[in-house]
Specification:
Structural class: alpha+beta
Low-confidence stretches: none
Radius of gyration: 21 Å
Number of helices: 4
Oligomer: single chain
Shape: globular
Order of helices and strands: EHEEEEEEHEEEEHH
Helix content: 10-25%
Number of strands: 11
Length: 248
């Protein structure tokens, strides 16, 4: 594994802090989130509606039928920074803070996310927090002439009798630590792009907790730090020093 440290050019394309709530007061209307527009205008001047959308596909007598589209009601609002890299999602099922590349650090993202979560609690008044998650999507570009073992500690299984050279793969593993109550979903995928000299491996790490969660922001800080520690152990445990040096 690689030594755990801050990478100055981290391959993170998106970092997410997600707060999921149970049902809100039946009288609460998602239009109420628009009242935050003036309060958020300085840092999040772009406001967009979030509406429910569902598409279903059906085959009849072996023929694909036109998709059936359903548009539901208003779910909430997205408030975005001018450059679109910071997104605050206020929804009836919770709040999500997204930071798009370039990534800075959780020390910068966490206070902003918790301040906005405080606004969500003030306005929507959720009775409880059902799930708190920290998710990082990493896209690591490596020279295609090398071997995966040079850059990654965790490799896909090679099935006996299958061709020797790997074209692509997708893996996903879910696990749980009963002592901390933390869960982890880790996905890994190899993609071949238009550049024949490079290959891209995506490592998607979603760590979360679903028990003993308060709604008060300060009580969530130790849990977020615990999730951060687990996320770092997973990421740096999955790569080699050669990969870490590419992004240092």
């Amino acid at each position: 594994m690689a030594a755990i440290r801050h990478l100055t050019r981290a391959p993170i394309v998106e970092a997410i802090l997600d707060f999921r709530v149970g049902s809100l007061d039946p009288d609460f209307q998602p239009e109420a989130f628009l009242s935050l527009k003036d309060r958020l205008r300085e840092h999040y001047p772009v406001a967009e509606e979030r509406r429910f959308f569902q598409a279903s596909f059906e085959f009849r007598e072996g023929k694909a039928m036109p998709p059936e589209e359903k548009f539901g009601g208003l779910q909430g609002y997205n408030f975005k920074s001018e450059d679109g890299r910071n997104v605050a999602q206020f929804r009836v099922d919770g709040f999500t803070y997204n930071r798009l590349a370039p990534y800075t650090s959780l020390d910068e993202i966490r206070p902003a996310a918790l301040d906005l979560w405080g606004l969500y609690v003030e306005l929507a008044k959720p009775e409880k927090l059902d799930r708190l998650a920290l998710r990082y999507i990493n896209r690591i570009a490596i020279p295609s002439k090398g071997t995966l073992a040079e850059y990654f500690q965790v490799l896909p299984t090679h099935f006996p009798g299958s061709p020797k050279y790997l074209a692509t793969f997708v893996t996903r593993i879910s696990s749980h630590d009963p002592d901390t109550g933390y869960f982890a979903n880790v996905g890994q995928a190899l993609e071949r792009g238009v550049d024949p000299l490079l290959a891209t491996v995506t490592i998607d790490i979603d760590v979360y907790r679903v028990s003993d969660l308060a709604v008060e922001s300060q009580k969530l800080v130790p849990i977020i730090e615990g999730l951060r520690k687990m996320k770092n152990e997973i990421f740096f445990g999955a790569i080699t020093e050669a990969t870490a040096e590419l992004y240092s």
